[in-house]
Amino acid sequence: MKDTFVNARLIAKDMIRLCVFSSLPLDRLEPNLQIDGVIKGRLVPTRVNSFTSMTIADFRLHNRLELGHSYFLLFPQYGAIPLDVVEATTFEGFDEEFYYDGWLGCSYRPKATEFALWAPLASSVFLKYKDPGADQFEYLPMIRGDRGVYHLLLKGNHEGAIYRFLIRNSEIINETTDPYAKASTLNGEFSVIADFSKLETNFRRECLPILNNPTDCVIYEAHVRDMTISSYTNIKHKGRFLGMVEKGKKTKNGKPAGFDYLKSLGFTHLQLLPIYDFKTVDESDPSSSYNWGYDPAQYFVPEGSYASDLKDPLSRIRDLKAMVAAFHEAGIRIVMDVVFNHVYEYQASVFEKVVPNYYFRRRHNGQLANTSGCGDDLASERPMVHKLIVDAAMWWIDTYGIDGFRFDLMGIIDVNTLNEIARKARDKDPNFLLYGEGWNMGGDVNVPLGHMGNYKLFPEYAHFNDVFRENTKRYMVEDFNSMDGFKHVLVGSVLNFMGDAKFGNANQTINYVECHDNATFYDFVEARRKDLSNEDRVKLAKLAMAACLFSFGIPFIHMGQEIAQSKWGEDNTYNKGDDYNKFSYRLLEERYGMVEYLRDLIHLRKAMSFLHIYDPRVIDVAVVVDQYGEATKASFKNPNLIAPYKEVEFIFNPSGIDYDYKIDKERFVYCSHDNFAKSTKTDQIRIPARSFLLTYAL
């Protein structure tokens, strides 16, 4: 009937609403209810509203409808109309009735493989699978159990088989991969049955130094492809996990590259942009496309374009494990950038296909929430979404040896989920590092979210400190109205000093001026200070690194920041390709002195343990911050706190003025214009323009 449209939807546990859009005269609406192919009786409307070309009729049922069955309304004039049950996910008590706390996914054993899929709305689920070497797929029905979970025990050895599920929701059949899949074919086309007992790895955790608190950490952010893709090195596995850990690799003129370079810097944690499976890079031909990876596709599977053997589903697993183990052996922990706030295209996502209208957050007006602007928000506050996120986080820790999580847009995720991850992660590893983007992005949800304003509710997490970033950047380009703000962030943003305290302790602040987002610091300076020479911009880049490393909190350095790398003024290069994003080993050779400078700063940061203090009460008595001309000076003179040093001073001078600074005794001096620690017998020190100066007495 081309002029008529009929829709039937379950709007309450015991009520069906029928909508008829038609230009034809209205007929009597008394359909038969058919359940699993059997007619159960006639329905009589309890309310009918009729408008021009539209009629709405409600049918009150004697008993609530039980999910997991096939429902049709049979009309003599309209035929069989399927009942849409997706609104059931919003009914009161749905989460309590269908929450399932057991394992999900695929569990391989040599004699049988077990499958479990949570699909409470589905009236049927079939497993579609094909063993290696088989000519065609097999189809088997799965059995619905308690709480809407479908199970199947597939007898025999099916290692390496590919599979999907065929799920019937509201009489619409979708074919999809496993939301809990642990292995995958190219581009996530099929899930794969894998024997993880053959992939066990010694992650060499005994090589990792003990950390007393998060402020002992120094974080370096990099991207697997960007760090290894350059043709200016002899790295073999370019753009791959294994390329990150090739030893003995060099630039064209003999400087260390890749793994040896990263190891030489001295940082404690390597934060990698997303290494889970993301959507918009073609895994069959990685060179044909580029993306940072903030478009999640599979939460339990490593990214396939980083594998050494693109066609082998296990290669990405083996390679990632080998990469983590190699960095651990070098004393470096791995932080994984996780995106649990949205996925790539919710309509096509595995979650919407398996349980429609459940996994994604809706605003009070019913519209899907796209708070990030990058994709529809995952409803982390819903129990089975919470479970998925926590299960995925624990899988990466247990299976891949991950040592920390950096949460993308953490302010969209609920605090309860974040705290559950923290509790379980810290039970496994007391040194596990947790931090993220705590921007307050709003959102229509009646639970506390993980933004900085709620820092007291999830104290185990640190936050990217935008107050540090903005005040430091502006002060570095001689916006001296930002000097007070710089003083405030220098002491960890935890004191009511030149501003209100932003955090409860310095373990909660990530001090940075540059990350993968936004313009590089060098590009920021170039845009704001076109009058400066390139030499002066490089000096300011060194000074900004010193500000990150010699403030209270957790210092963070972005790949390329140590050589004042540019992205030619572009601030969001997530898909702009290698030319904009790759680490410039050519520039590294030209500015190798900056690399040595960063090594010195990290060495000093580690040696000066008083900088690792996080308690604001101790910070308050440990340091005096004032100014010297347009320079900022931090003085430490409490020998009990700064031992083995007797006195220490940091001076940050972003101005174009050289200052003469008198001291009362012989000091060791380190200046960004000079080499590491030299002794001086003079009572007067020059503080060069656009420099960082450190003096200390032993």
Biggest sheet features: 8 strands, mixed
Tell me the overall shape: elongated
Instruction: Give the N-to-C terminal Cα separation.
Output: 92 Å
Oligomer: single chain
Q: State the share of residues found in helices, binned by percent.
A: 10-25%
Strands, total number? 35
SSE class: alpha+beta
Q: What is the radius of gyration computed over CA atoms, rounded to a whole number of angstroms?
A: 30 Å
Beta fraction: 25-35%
Spatial order of the strands in the main sheet?
A: 4-3-7-8-1-2-6-5
- Spans of at least 5 consecutive residues whose pLDDT stays below 50 are none
Q: What is the number of helical segments per DSSP (H or I, 4+ residues)? A: 16
Name the average pLDDT. Answer: 95
